[in-house]
Design brief:
102 residues, alpha+beta, four-stranded antiparallel beta sheet
């Protein structure tokens, strides 16, 4: 007998910007904080575009919820893609950022 998913269940996604400690060391507090803030704003846009909601951000990470696993998975993939597309190797101060997602 298949089990049903409760109507009030959610898919939870946790995303963490990788290498933020070295980013602070290389660029300094103000620039690194700005870069991480921009990155979190970008990721928030991806979450919203995939019918998700950011529950909380803390430093360089974010906790998000989605109504289903499909939306959560699509958002996680889009988050990764958005950082690759948004990187600019021609600008030396723009250190490429990546994100770990679970």
């Amino acid at each position: 007998m298949p089990t049903s998913v409760p109507e009030d269940s959610l898919a939870i996604v946790f995303a963490d910007i990788s290498g933020s400690t070295s980013l602070y060391e290389r660029l300094g507090d103000a620039v690194a904080r700005h870069r991480i803030g921009v990155c979190l704003e970008q990721l928030t846009g991806v979450v919203i575009a995939n019918q998700g909601r950011v529950v909380k951000t803390n430093g360089d990470d974010m906790l998000c919820v989605f109504q289903d696993t499909t939306s959560a998975t699509l958002a996680a993939c889009a988050m990764q893609e958005s950082l690759v597309e948004g990187s600019d190797a021609t600008e030396p101060m723009l250190v490429a950022l990546s994100v770990r997602i679970g």
